[in-house]
Specification:
The structure is a homodimer. By secondary structure, chain A is of the alpha/beta class. The first copy, chain A, folds into 3 domains: 52 residues, Orthogonal Bundle (434 Repressor (Amino-terminal Domain)); 126 residues, Response regulator (Rossmann fold), CATH 3.40.50; 145 residues, Response regulator (Rossmann fold), CATH 3.40.50.2300. Helix content of chain A is 46%, strand content 16%. At the A-B interface, α4, α5, β2, α6 and α10 of A face α4, α5, β2, α6 and α10 of B.
Chain lengths: 338, 338
DNA sequence: ATGAAAGCGCTAACAA
DNA sequence: TTGTTAGCGCTTTCAT
């Protein structure tokens, strides 16, 4: 079917090794270089990476396992990562495991069979059981976004605790004391970290955390809508809300519009992620921005380093989020009512 | 490193062919089956798909080239497709070419070298030049979302023209005659089809198309915001707007909130895609819903059929969109003013 | 039902 | 610089 190196060898009268060497950056006589190039063109030769992968035991392919591709956060990370990896000759196989631990395990085994050179995972399963299969292979493994307790490997995370701490402290600094929060699922690492940050900001300011001000969503638009509805109903005294991911932030904005509650004037809001959305809102949203593309780039960089040189002590990259100020938070005077 | 079939053979005392046969569904004596299973478990054996791929000239990998992974439309299609493909043992390598024809060509060549068994592409380059490299290989190729003029191959498209025609006809049926439209980039297939449908609905109703009612965005949130601003400014008489993709619909909603223009009461709106967002809006948006997940599933099904049996005449799947009615369109009486 | 052997396309020693 | 050769791990005749 497709032309092979053998065909090039026959066509040029050269040996296999010469072609191979040339293809891998070796030197050949100018005369032969021309012959080879011509044969390649004529026969539409393209290196067979499968054969190369078998021979070198390196597929130049990286596996990625994520809980949900249909999330801007995930897709932005992947975009940033895939870009760099491909530019370096690495393919990316993405497996969406739908936040299902069993599917996650299947995906990992699948990638092991595919002999990916490295694995990037935003883990769903919380104990790292699924990762053992991969660790056996002794290949680079990078955790993103979520840590696994007691599981030591390279990671690229954002400082969620600080992100939430800063956001809530900002609200407190503006005079707010009754601050609602729409958190993520209770069992997700980032969600717990963000709620910790929320609590810590209160503690530091000497404000008691009220249970009724905390609701949990599942990181979807719909749950953002419901979260606001619930918060507003339960807390007439609430003057601000912190929403802990993009989809729920969008839901929150929609719900507030729906309820006729004006952002800033009636209720202050700090959202999460997706600067474009935040800027497009009116008033522009104050948000915690995670450097999604940067995360992807860091992961790619780290992975490229690891596939080249697997040894070395663990690397943990913590990226800072940024509190980007829009106009969704009002100054609350000490004596004013809502 | 990792265990091979040879190891299993040694461990069990059986021959290579027996192991291979068993692994591929062949029959072995019960006694041997147990021995093999045990050895597999002990040695953590996982088939090397690379070697298998080389031998069988089938990698069980499908390449996907899209213009932008960071778009809900694309990511939903991929999610639906990848799900089914992986369940059938096929990996998916996604390449985001950023709507850049040169990057698209690189991606295709890359996938050819990876010896993918099939290619799914939402083409950026409009003449099919980039696809020649792949056609040489004689492997299945499926176009999604966008056609290429004069280029004959399998495709899964939605009926964009009809989608737009229905949406605009619906608005006309409600009494609207001054209907703005936020179209996509002029050179994108779907964008032109949707604008054609817009024009056709006018033609059929005997309403002249006004140039000032047509603006072009680039399928981003921001361009939806700008599109509305522009339309509203230029057309005080406009009573309805049709927005032709999800990101721009979101932008439109945001811009209308910003401008204090009430959806339904002040301006009727028909958006595009993402039912969840539409339902979460207040009032719920009337939208054209493309069956994104279904597209992905159809593509996967078609691809699985083609890799099994490459021959057969071209298949063109056209999926219908659905006009899902929310409450964003008002009835306009013949004599009323805006 | 099982085994021996050839070979998929490539790279890497080694030799020339 | 170039060629010869072995072999990566698997599947697939063809025997047995």
């Amino acid at each position: 079917m497709a032309a092979t190196m053998k065909d090039i060898a026959r066509e040029t009268g050269l040996g296999l090794a010469t072609i191979s060497s040339y293809l891998n950056g070796g030197n050949v006589r100018e005369k032969n270089r021309i012959k080879i190039e011509q044969a390649i063109k004529e026969l539409h030769y393209e290196v067979n990476e499968v054969a190369r992968g078998l021979r070198t035991a390196a597929t130049r392919t990286i596996g990625v396992v994520i809980p949900e591709l249909n999330s801007v956060f995930c897709s932005e990370i992947i975009t940033g990562m895939e870009d760099i990896l491909r530019a370096n000759g690495y393919a990316t196989i993405v497996c969406d495991c739908r936040s299902d631990a069993a599917l996650e395990k299947e995906a990992i085994d699948f990638l092991v069979r595919k002999r990916v050179d490295g694995l990037v995972i935003m883990p769903t399963e919380r104990e790292g059981k699924n990762l053992n299969a991969f660790l056996q292979a002794g290949k680079p493994l990078i955790l993103i976004d979520r840590e696994i307790q007691g599981f030591d490997c390279d990671s690229v995370l954002t400082d969620n605790r600080k992100a939430a701490f800063d956001a809530v402290s900002y609200l407190i600094g503006k005079g707010h004391t009754d601050i609602g929060v729409i958190g993520g699922p209770r069992n997700v690492f980032t969600s717990r970290e963000r709620l910790d940050g929320y609590a810590e900001a209160h503690r530091k300011a000497g404000i008691a955390v009220q249970e009724s001000l905390i609701v949990h969503g599942d990181y979807t638009i719909r749950s953002g809508v419901k979260g606001i509805q619930r918060l507003v109903k339960l807390n007439p005294h609430m003057t601000a809300v912190f929403v802990t991911n993009y989809e729920m932030t969008m839901g929150a904005v929609i719900a507030l519009n729906e309820l006729g509650i004006r952002i800033h004037d009636d209720l202050s809001l700090v959202g999460f992620d997706n600067l474009e959305f935040a800027r497009a809102c009116s008033p522009a949203l104050t948000i915690v921005a995670q450097p999604t593309t940067k995360i992807g780039e860091e992961v790619a960089g780290l992975m490229l380093k690891r596939v080249g040189e697997p040894e070395g002590s663990r690397i943990h990259i913590r990226l800072e989020t940024e509190l980007i100020k829009g106009n969704s938070v009002s100054e609350r005077k000490a004596d004013s009512n809502r």
